[in-house]
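Hi R.,

Here's the chain you asked about this morning:
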Amino acid sequence: MLQRKVIQDISVIDISGDIDFREMIRIKDVIGSLIEKDQTKVVLNLKAVDHINYLSIGLLVERLRLLRNLNGDLKLAGMSPFLRDIFKVVGMDQFFEEYTSLEEAIESFDEDWEGDGTYH
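And the predicted structure, written out as tokens:
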């Protein structure tokens, strides 16, 4: 299940249930459509996710790199210890900024731009 909302200029994708390979391709496509609209700040809210297919995490890393090349980012929020372990096992935890709550993930974008008055 995917739901999208925009908070400030940040696109939040709420995901629930299991993320299998097919679901990850849908998430990848959603992020692709955001990029086409110049929406490059994305948070995946994983609070309601029970399981993630570890093979599919590589698709997220590819999107993360693309977003960062466009001065954006892809951050993760609300991961359970179980999900965190899956990311660690495949060595993907080092790529992502991960936050306990959605609010912290959203606020972290403000911190990224601090001191540079060109972004509002």
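The longest strand covers residues 41-52.

Let me know if you need anything else.
M.
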